[in-house]
Design brief:
heterodimer; A: 238 residues; alpha/beta; Rossmann fold; 4-stranded antiparallel beta sheet; B: 355 residues; mainly alpha; two-stranded antiparallel ribbon; 14 helices; cell membrane (chain B); branched-chain amino acid transmembrane transporter activity (chain B); membrane (chain B)
Chain lengths: 238, 355
């Protein structure tokens, strides 16, 4: 059984074929990274899974349910969650209030304060809980959003370049945070450019190129594949 | 036991992250203002008291707009449409039904319900059709202007509903005032002391009720949508439903203003839905500080009083001053002048404490 599966997923923008017949499957408990040169269709593929865009043809199955036409919030309620590239937080609200909004829907109101304290501790943001979220450092904003995304207790967490703009130390700490979540049973799918980070977290890697699945395997298999080096570096051999 | 703790939890929402003012100091101030408002008729002529109910009538619409725009982030430029719908409904109903047996109160509820229903239909197409930002303002403004134009051409004798004549631009008059059935004889709410106290009580109830609403889970989601709609949806909320609910509640409050105004003056005209009328609520709410109920209330009341004084003493400048006030607010204190004053006071007191 796969937790997420796409079958012949197609999306065009005008004459541009952004994803073409993408067949992709994700095993429960996996940490999977999606890489590819700019314009490979990674973000579009993500948006199709989230329901921000609807595909022209093809199917998306989540835990064996067809979610191809479901609205984004319905997908989230089924167990998907997302962390955007640009931190998607509520800047004018306090850090704590951000988490309240994320958790209030599915946590008993009596348990909510305790649950939020636990999450703040996990994110290392307990000291900043009263601050406005917009005043946090970039890395802290990213963590806050990860906190909001995992607060939903998702089966599958999608991460769009979760370490964009982070310092190397913050990137490493984020990797360790994601590994802890994975150890607790969460499946993760991340779009990422930073190969050191991919090496740190990924069990398997998929390379997208011109909207198609170009290669798939472990990070060692992918980096050893001369065809992958070629699409990243052009026709010159690496 | 469970019931009591539930009620206690709901009452606790009167203070929270979405409203300014908490703790004994705020509530003592609130009680003092309320006391002064209650005592005011003792020191004023009852004719003036009745006249000044005029100001309270509009505040419901201002609070409703604060909910829709300030909290929900959806700028509706056409709240006067719902003001007008309820006002005309109240007029037609009461002229036909009369004021006995509490039928004016029934008419009030029916008229407000009618506004809410129209808001639900319009809001459904707006929010489920993903009409956002400036387009929401344009469409809602268009609706109120269309209604104004439509009512303006109802001068002919054929425009009659039962015994109520719509009367075109001259306006519809002679509807009965709200009347409360009472054992010792009905209490007619003419612009006098009873109307003052009833409207004040209604205003306090709406203000406190809205405080609880915006600090509830519903309010949390509403401000989340204002801050970042995509993120709110990606937390599993059907944001269209929340926006629609806020729009309906806010528009029902505009409707309540319409009924109270019509009952107060026994008169309603299409101009109440026109361009000038539609723009004024934006000024009241923006100048005070739309993202908080208290600053909205204080700001709207202050602007209304200034506007009224201007229309009496320098009517040619009244609208120009209102426009200038909006421009100054947007440039100098985009979050509202009352809000800026509150924030400055808080900063000062914090600095003093730090010393």
């Amino acid at each position: 059984m796969h937790i997420l599966e796409t079958r012949k997923l197609n999306k065009r923008f005008g004459g541009l074929h952004v994803t073409g017949d993408v067949d992709f499957a994700l095993t429960p408990g996996e940490m999977h990274c999606l890489i590819g040169p700019n314009g490979a269709g990674k973000s579009t593929f993500f948006r199709l899974i989230l329901g921000e865009h609807l595909p022209d043809s093809g199917e998306i199955l989540f835990q064996d349910h067809d979610i191809t036409r479901a609205r984004p919030f319905q997908r989230i309620r089924q167990g998907l969650s997302v962390k955007f590239q640009v931190p998607g937080i509520f800047k004018e609200l306090s850090v704590r209030q951000n988490l309240v909004i994320a958790l209030q829907h599915h946590v008993d109101p009596r348990m909510l304060p305790e649950e939020i304290d636990r999450l703040l501790e996990f994110l290392g943001l307990a000291h900043a809980q009263a601050q406005l979220a917009g005043n946090l450092s970039h890395g802290q904003k990213q963590w806050l959003e990860i906190g909001m995304a995992i607060g939903l207790k998702p089966r599958l967490l999608l991460l769009d370049e979760p370490t964009a703009g982070m310092t190397p130390d913050e990137t490493h700490a984020t990797g360790e945070m994601l590994k802890r979540l994975n150890a607790e049973g969460m499946t993760l799918l991340a779009v990422e450019h930073d190969m050191a980070f991919v090496r740190q977290i990924a069990h398997r890697v998929t390379v997208l190129h011109f909207g198609k699945v170009f290669a798939q395997g472990t990070i060692d298999e992918i980096t050893a594949d001369p065809r992958v080096a070629k699409i990243y570096l052009g026709e010159v051999d690496a | 036991m469970e019931q009591t703790s539930r009620i206690r939890r709901i009452l606790a929402l009167i203070e929270g992250p979405q409203t300014l003012g908490r703790g004994p100091r705020f509530w003592s101030g609130f009680a003092l203002v309320l006391l002064l408002a209650c005592a005011y008729p003792a020191f004023a002529d009852s004719y003036d008291v009745g006249n000044n109910v005029y100001f309270f009538n509009w505040l419901f619409m201002a609070l409703g707009l604060s909910l829709i725009w300030g909290y929900g982030g959806a700028l509706s430029f056409g709240q006067t449409a719902f003001f007008g719908i309820a006002a005309y409904c109240y007029g037609v109903l009461t002229i036909n039904l009369g004021d006995a047996y509490g039928l004016t109160l029934f008419s009030l509820l029916a008229a407000v319900g009618c506004s809410a229903l129209c808001a639900a239909v319009l809001g459904y197409f707006l929010f489920y059709g993903r009409i956002n930002g400036v387009f929401l303002g344009i469409v809602s403004l268009s609706v109120t202007l269309v209604l104004e134009r439509f009512m303006a051409q109802t001068a002919g004798p054929e425009w009659t509903i039962g015994s109520a004549r719509l009367n075109g631009f001259n306006g519809m008059g002679n509807m009965p005032s709200l009347t409360i059935p009472w054992p010792g004889g009905p209490i007619v709410l003419y612009p006098d002391l009873p109307l003052y106290y009833v409207t004040l009580a209604l205003l306090i109830a709406v203000y406190l009720g809205l405080r609880m609403l915006v600090n509830s889970r519903f309010g949390n989601v509403l401000v989340a949508i204002r801050e970042n709609p995509l993120r709110a949806e990606m937390l599993g909320y059907d944001i269209r439903r929340y926006q629609l609910m806020a729009f309906v509640i806010g528009s029902a409050l505009a409707g309540l203003s319409g009924v109270l105004y019509t009952s107060w003056g026994n008169y309603i005209t299409p101009a109440s839905m026109g361009m000038t009328a539609a723009a004024l609520p934006i000024v009241w709410v923006a100048v005070g500080g739309r993202s908080d109920l208290t600053t909205t209330l204080v700001g709207a009341l202050a602007v209304l009083i200034v506007f009224q004084l201007l229309t009496i003493h320098a009517s040619q400048y009244a609208l120009v001053v209102m426009g200038a006030l909006l421009v100054i607010t947007v440039l100098v204190a985009p979050r509202g002048i009352v809000m800026a004053l509150v924030e400055a006071t808080l900063r000062l007191s914090r600095r003093k404490e730090a010393r």
